[in-house]
Amino acid sequence: MAADLDFDAHRFQTAAAHYLQGRPPYARTLMRRIVQFCGLDGSQRLLDLGCGPGQITFALAPYVREAVGIDPEPAMLALARGRTGAPANARFVEGSSNDLGPALGRFDAVTIGRAFHWMNRAETLARLDPMIETGGAVLLLSTEIPELPQNAWYRAYREVTEPYANQDPDRIRRKSADWAKDEAVLLASPFDRLERIVVMERHETPVESLVDRALSTSSMTRAKLAGQADDLANKLRAALTPFAAGGRIAEQVESEALIARRGSEAD
What we know:
Layout: H1 16-22, H2 28-38, E1 45-49, H3 55-60, E2 66-71, H4 74-82, E3 90-94, E4 107-113, H5 121-128, E5 132-144, H6 153-165, H7 169-174, H8 182-187, E6 193-206, H9 207-216, H10 222-225, H11 229-240, E7 248-261
Parallel strand pairs: 1-2, 1-4, 2-3, 4-5
Antiparallel strand pairs: 5-7, 6-7
């Protein structure tokens, strides 16, 4: 089994500028399902671990008493703090899964969006166990572009991006056959009662946002690609333009929440 990746606090430093414009938003319906599933009624505390620019923090803060977003990258936190409409009950803290401990207090729900693979996953769950209230949950959120006829453009996107992304050794490790799936890590932890919520929705996404999407990923940041970043951007524009109407591409996006609770607390 491949070891978890080494911690790099500033992996997303140059990705931050492209993140909000490029990454697909989590479906609002998914957030409503999470609120219902977790029984969020305004009395709970939420920890958004690896919060980035605060997409999940902003979406769920209205349903909890306090939302705490934590991220190791100052550029991401600056985006979160600078966004309009920041909930009054949300605060953002510089730190990582290595900083989890009693000083943060206890939480009813911990969300991790597109970030769990950057952590020592087993150790993170062990640190979270004493921080999560009885009946609480860990939620791993992600978005995917499924292989459907409606996403025909995605093959062209991958044909352009894969040669650049595969220059990153960490990505190769994560895609290897011996990389443990998140579900396997959770099943070996106290949070071994798993349920999944999946929502699919259609977006109209500007071609330029898909260029941002590539540059927002850890394996294709401007820092990693150096002089190749503009070359990648130009190749993507050329490859995606035939799929666009009015500069936009229709995409079917799958938003998922993998919800993990303690099996010892099963109903």
